[in-house]
Sequence to fold (706 residues):
Amino acid sequence: FLQVGVTAPKSMRLLPASGRKATQKVVVGDQDGVITCFGIKKGEAVPVFKTLPGQKIARLELGGALNTPQEKIFVATGSEVRGFTKRGKQFLSFETNLTESIKAMHISGADLFLCASYIYNHYCDCKDQHYYLSGDKINDVLCLPVDKVNCITPVLACQDRVLRVLQGSDLLYEAEVPGPPTVLALNNGNGGDSGEEIVYGTSDGKLGLIQITGSKPIPKWEIGNEKKRGGILCIDSFDILGDGVKELLIGRDDGMLEIYNFESADNPVLRYDHALSESIASVQGGCVGKDGYDEILASTYSGWLTGLTTEPVRREDGSGEELKLSQEMQSKISSLRNELEHLQMKVLQEREKYQQSSQSSTAVSSVPAFSVNDKFTLNKDDASYSLILEVQTAIDNVLVQSDVPIDLLDVDKNSAVVSFSSCDSEPNSNFLLATYRCQANTTRLELKVRSIEGQYGTLQAYVTPRIQPKTCQVHQYQIKPLSLHQRTHSIDHDRPMNTLTLKGQFSFAEIHSWVVFCLPEVPEKTPAGESITFHFQNTFLGTQLESTYRKGEGCFKSDNISTISILKDVLSKEATKRKINLNISYDINEESVRHTLKLIHPKLEYQQLLAKKVHLIDALRELQVHEGNVDFLLPKYRSILEEADQLLEEYKRQPAHLERLYGMITDLFIDKFKFKGTNVKTKVPLLLEILDGCDQDGLIAFFEAA
Fold:
């Protein structure tokens, strides 16, 4: 339909229709601070109103008195909330007392719910009512429908994988969800029959329904992300199939738009999906383009508004009718072609003008600003990091540089050409230099990297879009010492654990900053209260870590000696930097080494077998060509030939997997004896020989005999 500026999630809505079967107006807010309201007449976007630019618009919601059409437009910009009528007249400017920018907003009648990073505020008629400080970043806020539940029940979606349910200014309870929730929506748009049902989407692409009762959460259903699609950014309920039941419309950050319907009452089923080229910030169902035909409207990151319609492109009730409709289509296509030619001419003229002016001595070249939407997250399934870069214009190239050893893994969706540069062997220099050259019109690039625990530093991405003059933006991502650990709700206390205890003259804030430095997914803000406990799981091995600390004391427990060893080294280094004297004691459980080896061994066996099979493929294929058939081979060799392509694909996808496992076992061996005060580096070659033989009991015996 049209393009506005870069849009944030949840910043586009459809205004309720005024008459029967009338089309709806679209209202969207962008990061230039402009609110655009338009309708569609004869396939063209007709503006209703447009505001002047200002601060970025983070959220756009509709409101109005309860049980009346919700047609007042509210936007959150910076720490201010503004209200507009559907004609575009501003009737409210409410400057909140929040010190940070508003990240999430919900409106219900006279109640306004706002969240900055960690702070939740509830206002009624613009008067401050309640306040809550969350333990981790708040991504979204929602309130159960007051007319059904008869009390105000705000729900916060927090980064630490919980929904926090509030009562007034107090926490009523926490509901655990399977990933960091990014978006909340009322089921069916009204909270279901009870008014207590909330649909949530997570940043790792999972979707679920949870019932928020007055006393406890009741999970109803949950859909994993088997297809490895992007994180969920927006959810809407709308009956697009016309069967009387509202479907779920889901927009993801990899441009996937999905429609789920409820065939059985239990779980939703994916019925349709459509791939757009960039992340979907908002999705709405309604009647926009043509009277009588419902459609799904999506707004994407760079501000495109796109519709998917139920209107048939060709009618089947007679030849004349069919021609008439395709004629309408033809005229639309030809007008678009003319517009394109006109634009191309304009671009050429402007470019010539720019070239001429740049030759003059007085001309000053200004750096064009462009916005980059980036996401750097750890995937639980394959213990790798995804780096997603999305730019508002086409990307020319991205240079990736790292000062720690990391592996670049293959991404199927990635069409860019990658080339590697050799790095200096000096210490403190580059370990990785790779350039991704993108094809024309690529605005989104996804990379996958795997780090090694214990090696920490910075990964940098230099992003250069196709704009003149050539400009580049640098984005930095920290690779932490325990980079493959992910926060989890609870751990198994029956495992053999090693303990590291620190005591010294340090404050709660200081030890918290050290934990933030070591581990991902820890909130940067020092937690409220005297002490705090976090649980982690190593995504590569499945070992676990519990960290509990307060002022002057920290205690770390893990079933993996290497985790404790890394923590000991990094924490003592950080304390030395600040001239703090640490008293470090540790309690090593011999049983834990055997336990960790048993966790690593099946992975090791699998990778060694895979490597052996891959080495045999060429020889077997040669035999096949030579002999004409392979019936004389043993079944296990025949199956290698049948699965050759999958085996090669898997081997290519995890290039240094076996080396990583060897490295982990070697580290475990060295760390075990390091805590006993002996140096066993001379015995490492022996260990590697045993690893090639790959016998679990022999390996455990070697560890115990050394």
User: Anything to note?
Assistant: The longest helix spans residues 319-359. Residues 593-705 form one domain. The chain has ten helices and 43 strands. The chain has a mean pLDDT of 89.
